[in-house]
Amino acid sequence: MSFLLNHNYRFYINELLKGNDPITNLRIGKGITSIDPDNNEESDETYYYDGGGAAERDITGYMLSYAFEGHRNYGDPAQDKLMALATKTGPDRKLYFVVEEPDGTVIEGPATVSDIVKPGGDANAKGEISFTISFDGTPEITDPPENNDYPALNTPINLAATSGTITATEIGVTWDFTPPTGTTKAVEFDVFVNGEFETTVTVNSAVVTDLTASTEYTITVQAKYADNPIVKSLVSDPLKATTIA
To answer: What region does 163 belong to: left with phi over 0, alpha with psi -120 to 50, or beta?
Structure first.
């Protein structure tokens, strides 16, 4: 049995309430450091004469929620959308929420954003934010697909810094990838910087941003199926690149 790391979770919001539409979904991930799910269960305890003094508990309700904490990243579409809701109420706090678990299970449905805390903290620290997204009612749950239909993915190779794209704060990177024989399933690529998840892209290139000048970074890439992210390739050989002064 293998352990599925938390960074393999994917969270999306859809401000247009169109459902799980990859075109309009905004991914929550940039700047997020911690996520705490909570079932928020309501229960009822009843003591019966034949219970010997012990109660029976019945779960009478629940509300599945996810509390997010992290650092404010201006320009990230999901964060910008969520932070803008701090002064909104009622229907304006509603959106469509999608959770993709590491094993491929998808949980989705209408939801409400609450407990929004805008950036704060020490003067020389990253601005700390938090918010909670709670499903309204019972979300729709889709079981993961069978992995037998997903051939093993080849490892991305030949990582290279893109000519002319290295600046003081950014590094562009490209790679080669050969899809498995006999499948047309969509493949995505997770990009990691110094071992930490950075972003997911659908093409063989990415631009890593918010870097520090004159600093060496190690970049790796891992392929996965878009509709079954539990099936992944091996992580690529690392690319080392240094930002300019």
So the answer is: beta
